[in-house]
Amino acid sequence: MNATMRPMACAGCRLNRRNFLSTGCAACAGVAGLGLAAVSARAAEPRKPLRIRIFYALHAPVQPRADWPNVGFNFQPVMDRFVPELRARCPGFEFEATQASDEPTAKAALEADKNGRADGYIVYQLNCWNRVVQPVAATGKPTLLIDFPFGGSGGVLVYASQFMKSGTPNVGFVASPQMDDIAAAVRCFSQVAPNGADFAARVASARRAGTPVAGALACTADPVATLSPKDCLAKMREAKLLVVTDRKVGNIEAIRQQMGIDVIPTAFDELNAAWQAADKDEAKAVADRWKKTAKAIVDVSRETLETSAAMYLGEKALLKKHGAIGLTVNCLGGFYGGHIHAYPCLGFHELNNEGLIGGCEADVQSASTMIAMTTLTQGRPGYISDPILDTSKRQIVYAHCVASNRPFGPQGPANPFEILTHSEDRQGAAVRSLFPSGYMTTSVEFSAPKKQILFHQAKAVANLDDDRACRTKLVGEPVGDFEKLFTKWCDWGWHRVTVFGDLKEPVFALADALGWEVVREA
């Protein structure tokens, strides 16, 4: 008997679950027979399989350009495995797959499926920013967004947080590489109405159930001598940040007014001229030092080392010329546009080791955050990253191709580092820093327009060696509510700045001195 069925007692007899079938009441026996027959009939009815259409959101089966995971990445084996593994774990479902690179191709596939045969949709985000899930979600049918780690992670974090913020009930998401976690979410399709009501909530419940509890978060002792908020703000008001780009730079006035940092837009030509003027013998000496100190150098030629060293010397010359302590460069636009002829990554690595600021992608918000944190900690470098979240391990992975290997400051111990190509395009020279484990880290973003500091902490637990996406991959176990970490990406962007040390009290004190709010991300 179905546990939701409750037999009703007839007049003159006491009826409960224990004596229902043993009672001598003929009427009750008749009701029992009819009820059991109905249940048996329903059980005998064949269940129609749920039809789920899968959209692979990607540029092409073999990646044609620089992007996560990397140029030339072959997605075909990933796609070939996906459906058979789902079928093995999800009986009673039918899966059909198609590829889509953007909203028009996704809409065309939906139009071809307009007869409504699909009971729900999966969007497997293989590249980051292909807008496929948006038109799919707009159908109103249950839609599951799945992250391919170090491929589609940025899009999943930003898009999922947008759906969470808007309270879209028909869109759930998975941030785990484990097929069992993906299958648990897929099985939620069978639990909701065709209009997708409560699908997001059911997937979230499955996601939380598959997330481990927090491990031991006690950390290695790491006392940090920080400046007082007053002294930190005074030094920030003396700081200059160069932004090397050919694009319009936003938030400059807010940063100047709120943080006191003078932001100076700078042309590519100026950096390129400084690179060309760098002393060749000095560049060779820097390249020699890198060759001697790097744990490994892979697929990077001697010529590339020397041009990267010249870029470092050019960056230093530019800082000296302007009296600045940091610069951030539109590195990809500059390199691909032919405006600069060496990646600035190794130069940023050196600057950050020296207590100066080298920031990626002309990201003024993150670079000004680095200035604030390096000033506050008297030299500890900030590490800009593109994080991913993995619920199967309850971990956050901070990934980028630029990192210091002196996380405790210029006078602190150095950790091993490797020199490899820039990951997305397999060109130039970039850094894999093998950070120490066991220490508390503090990740922040300072937003001058918002007058807020986004804040979370994590214990450094490992370095991930994965060829997909950026070279440095610091693994952390977050402090606090892991599920809450999914909520802020659409409002704050993908970058975070991570600094070694338990800096909660100094950051909160600095926020008070600025008159800002701290937004706790976890």
Overview features:
17 helices, globular, 522 residues, disordered N terminus, 2 domains, Rossmann fold, alpha/beta, single chain, 5-stranded parallel beta sheet
Q: If you had to describe this structure to a student in words, what would you say it looks like?
A:
Strand 3 (120-125), helix 4 and strand 4 form a beta-alpha-beta unit. It is globular and about 75 Å long. The strands form 4 sheets. Strands 11-12-17-16-15-18 form a 6-stranded antiparallel β-barrel. The protein has a 5-stranded parallel β-sheet with strand order 2-1-3-4-5, sandwiched between helices. The protein has 17 helices and 19 strands. The protein has helices at 26-44, 76-89, 103-112, 133-137, 153-166, 179-186, 199-209, 229-236, 252-259, 268-277, 280-293, 302-322, 331-336, 345-353, 364-376, 489-492, 504-514; strands spanning 50-57, 93-100, 120-125, 143-147, 171-174, 240-244, 262-266, 296-297, 326-329, 357-360, 383-390, 395-400, 417-422, 427-433, 440-447, 452-463, 472-478, 496-500, 517-520. Mean pLDDT is 91; it is low at 1-45. By secondary structure, the chain is of the alpha/beta class. The chain is 35% helix and 22% strand. The protein folds into 2 domains: 50-209, Rossmann fold; 229-520, no CATH class. Helix 6 (179-186) runs antiparallel to helix 7 (199-209) and helix 8 crosses helix 17.
